[in-house]
């Protein structure tokens, strides 16, 4: 579009009282931009004031007022580019005049002193103008072949509930289930735990009703005895190939690789990308798995509800418990199947099992925690199964030995009702061993609440095996992605399918694939059905967003997508390897193959590209680079002791709002810092920092969320990738005789606003100790 610019400065909220608005306006005029002021831009009159100019053809607006995080709907005008200049939270409120005095008229006339806050505001205007010159109005990416149908992987309670919710919303769903019938493990259950007052009576499983509802719904198709051979494409246009379990198929993805193929010649374990390279080499001569299958089924999004399997309790760690050696020692899953057939009897001889010991922890001093993959679900299941014993035999006894008893929320009422049962005995304790005792068993426990060793005669022993997600053994989705068939980097979540353990439930690291139920974490049936609703809503949101050409999350509604200038691509593969979400495939030469609706718009590919050929319509190398270059860097030619200039690149999800909240609380930090928000630290290209230092800026600080095992990054790997890149820029700084300490990266969570002044000011003090950048003034 032909741009027609306008700068609008609000004087409300203390802005006009703190800043020299005339001088601020002059900055815009010097850049050739018309400028207007208003006392209350976000009010009704202020909005009408802006709309009047929009109606006269102004389509590129720099609005200098409050933070971009507030009033974003108020300052949105169709067909217009709008950039927000944060004068309120990050200039005026965080730099009160009692701490940063304004210049007197005499000092202004003298021209040798400087007003740090005014300079900060003026640079903010310059940066906004520079940005507006470099960005374009985004145009949505439209799919050629779009479908709104939803694929549901898994026909258990979660999958059926999700499919029903999808169908109720008017969309079509297809359930694929690898077994011969719907129902999953719930179909093998005797009863469900209570969910209503007085929380004493177990309830009939809901699975049968769900099966009937699914079979009666015209919007739901069911394919049993079926698994996914491959999923290719992108949200709104997935191509899915199905097969029978165990069937050989040209699109089979042999993942996980056999253990002997997961290591290199030296025995070092290969990472996910390296394993995928091995996989491709292993399949040389076979049909290219990255090629679309025209015969495949079409789906717009995928709900992953593949469920769980019981944890395997085998090996020396569990030998003292008798599992695998004594027939009457079973797992909780096996006990449930016994109970579903009728009265509880011993597997060894079919005799009544009136005394049952439930063991919640491996014990023996080796582990003071529960069995792996355990949690509240296994605690509630144990209480339910203890009640089976009491329901079946009036003289039955159930003993529960635990390290942790977890019954959150209203499940606590069930726990209390079981405590009142005289036939149920519970104690915290450490199981020493399980042994044969005549025709029965003997369980020994130590460190009990009674303060003494405990010996219990039992007919059966039940071990609380955990719920292992299906993705721990198999990618399940079998994606035909360059990054591999599963969800990259989910080892830190014990192979659960979540994208982020703090933010965005239901999402996975693959856009358009939403997890629900015990594939996400161990859940009860009630929790799984509730989870299914959330995943169904996300799947629907995804297909609708894909059809409109906007992103689903976390930049919901963003119309931009990465644009590549392929003529300069060197096929280095950094963008495909570093993309956290598998948005990029590549061809046989290594040239990136974008899948725009997979993209989360984080810009990690942009930060990764050494040739700087990747950008977004309103966020690109030139837009941020121009903002950096627009910052005025005072030198000794201007002032006897010029102020510092420090670039702060801050992630918009955590650091930027934290700085805003610091300003709202009137917490002050150095006014020599120039703040530029970035989508993610992963999008930061080192050229911006090099440009800043080469023009004389004294330092650069990156503020973003925590990375590592306990990461908080919206984009999973962004802050970690940025830290790696910053170590590499250190070498470049040394070659320029600049100290490596002039560039740093700090972790800031969204609630760390109290730390903002300390973080920024400490870095400024370090730069002051280093002295001014020797390139200043050149």
From TrEMBL:
GO-annotated molecular function: 4 iron, 4 sulfur cluster binding; metal ion binding; oxidoreductase activity
Q: Where are the transmembrane segments?
A: none
Q: Which UniProt keywords apply?
A: 4Fe-4S, FAD, Flavoprotein, Iron, Iron-sulfur, Metal-binding, Oxidoreductase
Q: Where is the 4Fe-4S ferredoxin-type domain?
A: 560-589, 590-619
> Which InterPro entries does its entry note?
4Fe4S_Fe-S-bd (IPR017896), 4Fe4S_Fe_S_CS (IPR017900), FAD/NAD-bd_sf (IPR036188), HdrA-like (IPR039650), MvhD/FlpD (IPR003813)
Q: Which cofactor does it need?
A: FAD
Keyword check for 4Fe-4S, yes or no. yes
Kindly name one Pfam family recorded for this protein: Fer4_9
The record's comment on protein family reads: Belongs to the HdrA family.
State the protein's name.
Answer: Methyl-viologen-reducing hydrogenase delta subunit
Record lineage: Bacteria, Pseudomonadati, Thermodesulfobacteriota, Desulfobacteria, Desulfobacterales
């Amino acid at each position: 579009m032909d741009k027609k610019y306008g700068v609008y400065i609000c004087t409300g909220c203390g802005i006009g009282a703190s800043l020299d608005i005339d001088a601020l306006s002059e900055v815009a005029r010097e850049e050739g931009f018309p400028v207007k002021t208003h006392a209350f831009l976000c009010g009704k009159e202020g909005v009408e004031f802006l709309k009047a100019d929009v109606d006269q053809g102004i389509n590129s607006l720099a609005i200098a007022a409050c933070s971009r995080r507030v009033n974003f709907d108020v300052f949105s005008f169709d067909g217009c580019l709008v950039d927000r200049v944060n004068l309120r939270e990050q200039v005026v409120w965080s730099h009160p005049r009692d701490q940063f005095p304004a210049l007197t008229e005499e000092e202004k006339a003298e021209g040798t002193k400087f007003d740090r806050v005014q300079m900060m505001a003026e640079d903010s205007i310059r940066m906004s103008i520079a940005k507006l010159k470099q960005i374009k109005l985004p145009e949505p990416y439209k799919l050629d072949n779009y479908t709104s149908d939803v694929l549901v992987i898994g026909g258990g309670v979660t999958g059926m509930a999700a499919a029903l919710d999808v169908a109720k919303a008017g969309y079509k769903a297809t359930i694929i289930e690898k077994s011969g019938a719907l129902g999953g493990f719930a179909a093998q259950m005797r009863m469900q735990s209570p969910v209503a007052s007085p929380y004493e009576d177990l309830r009939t499983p809901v699975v049968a009703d769900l099966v009937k509802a699914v079979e009666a719904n015209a919007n739901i198709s069911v394919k049993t005895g079926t698994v996914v051979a491959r999923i290719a494409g992108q949200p709104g246009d997935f191509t899915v190939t199905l097969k029978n379990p165990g069937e050989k198929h040209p699109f089979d993805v042999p993942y996980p690789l056999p253990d002997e193929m997961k290591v290199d010649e030296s025995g070092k374990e290969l990472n996910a990308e390296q394993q995928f390279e091995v996989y491709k080499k292993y399949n040389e001569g076979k049909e290219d798995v990255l090629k679309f299958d025209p015969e495949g089924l079409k789906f717009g999004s995928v709900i992953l509800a593949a469920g769980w399997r019981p944890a395997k309790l085998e090996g020396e760690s569990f030998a003292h418990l008798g599992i695998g050696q004594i027939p009457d020692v079973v797992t909780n899953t096996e006990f449930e199947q016994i109970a579903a057939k009728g009265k509880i009897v011993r597997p060894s001889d079919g005799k009544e099992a009136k005394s049952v010991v439930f063991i919640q922890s491996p014990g023996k001093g080796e582990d003071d925690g529960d069995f792996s993959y355990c949690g509240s679900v296994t605690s509630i299941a144990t209480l339910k199964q203890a009640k089976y014993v009491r329901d079946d035999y009036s003289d039955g006894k159930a003993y529960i030995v635990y390290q942790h008893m977890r019954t959150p929320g209203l499940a606590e009422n069930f726990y209390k009702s079981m405590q009142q049962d005289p036939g149920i005995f519970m104690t915290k304790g450490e199981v020493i061993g399980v042994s044969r005792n005549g025709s029965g068993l003997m369980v020994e426990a130590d460190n009990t609440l009674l303060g003494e060793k405990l010996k219990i005669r039992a007919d059966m022993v039940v071990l609380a095996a955990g719920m292992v997600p299906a993705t721990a053994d198999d990618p399940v989705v079998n994606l035909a992605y360059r990054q591999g068939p599963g969800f990259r980097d989910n080892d830190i979540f014990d192979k659960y399918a979540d994208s982020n353990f703090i933010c965005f439930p239901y999402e996975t690291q693959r856009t358009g694939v939403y997890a629900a139920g015990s594939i996400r974490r161990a859940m009860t049936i009630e929790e799984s059905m509730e989870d299914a609703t959330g995943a169904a809503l996300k799947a629907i949101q995804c297909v609708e967003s894909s059809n409109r050409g906007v992103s689903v999350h976390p930049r919901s509604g963003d119309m931009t997508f990465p644009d590549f200038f392929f003529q300069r691509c060197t096929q280095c593969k950094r963008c495909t390897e570093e993309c956290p979400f598998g948005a990029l495939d590549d061809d046989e030469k290594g040239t990136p193959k974008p899948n725009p609706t997979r993209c989360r718009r984080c810009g990690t590919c942009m930060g990764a590209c050494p040739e700087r050929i990747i950008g977004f319509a309103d966020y690109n190398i030139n837009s941020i680079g121009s903002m950096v270059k627009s910052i005025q860097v005072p030198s000794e030619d201007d002032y006897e002791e010029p102020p510092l200039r420090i670039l702060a690149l801050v992630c918009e999800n955590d650091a930027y709002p934290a700085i805003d909240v610091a300003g709202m609380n009137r917490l002050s930090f150095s006014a020599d810092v120039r703040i530029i928000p970035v989508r993610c630290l992963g999008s930061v290209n080192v050229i911006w920092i090099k440009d800043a230092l080469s023009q004389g800026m004294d330092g650069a600080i990156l503020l973003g969320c925590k990375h590592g095992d306990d990461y908080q990054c919206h984009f999973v790997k962004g802050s970690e990738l940025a830290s790696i890149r910053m170590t590499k820029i250190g070498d470049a700084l040394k070659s320029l005789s600049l100290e490596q300490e002039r560039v740093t990266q700090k972790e800031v969570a969204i609630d760390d606003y109290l730390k903002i002044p300390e973080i920024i000011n400490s870095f400024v003090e370090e730069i002051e100790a280093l002295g001014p950048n020797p390139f200043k003034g050149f």
